[in-house]
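User: Teach me something about this protein's shape.
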Amino acid sequence: MNKKVSVVQQQLKEFLLDKISEPLPMTVKIVEGSIPIVFFGNVEKAEIATLSLNPSNIEFEHNGVRRCVDRKQLRVSDSQKLTREQAESVYQSLLLFFKINPYKAWFNPMNKLFQSKGYEYYNDKIVHLDISPWATSNKWNSLSREEKKSIIDTTIIQNVIEKRGIKKLFINGKIAFNVFCATLNINTNDIQGSSYIYITQSGNNRSFIIYETEFLGCKVVGWNLYLHQGCPQDLVKKINSYL
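Assistant: First, the predicted structure itself:
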């Protein structure tokens, strides 16, 4: 690693540590005791990224299972900022997220979209990001427009793309793609769409649309369906073609 790259990576880490340190926002009901999940996986090694809306409440203590470090473990109240040492411990746990106890029901279907091309969350080649780093008590769609706006933080996406040099960003679902484009003022004229028809297991025809645009020199690819329950093989190949 040359000196210039190491300096940029350190800048990215310092930025992410600052974000991790933030207390819970008061504008919307956030999962109690949670911390902002600014990335999932090895942000220091990843070559491509995936993007969705915001982390699940399941990432924190749920039915006796805890996947991410929380404020209870750190002994910090929701209104307090984390110390540098505490933020560092969270940062390290997020780097190792896919090595310990990831939320496989969500991440494995996404992982299957890319693994045939050698990209996986589990081999550190993919990092996952969210439009908002905060796990909300209520689902995203039930939040008001003002509540959503108050917790969206695209500076994380921008910094990871620029400082890590991510060249491909894949967005899961039309809602996430639309929020991404609207928040970052991406002109609709700069978005290309390709439509495909596939046959469901029940024998019905269904439309699958792939959207393409660019942001900070990064190729952005999204699709209209929320692929958290698997994806037909022919659609996997369509997505693979963008790698």
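Now, about its shape. DSSP finds nine helices and six strands in the chain. The beta strands are 48-52, 126-130, 168-171, 192-199, 205-215, 218-223. If you'd like, I can walk through any region in more detail.
User: That's plenty for now, thanks!
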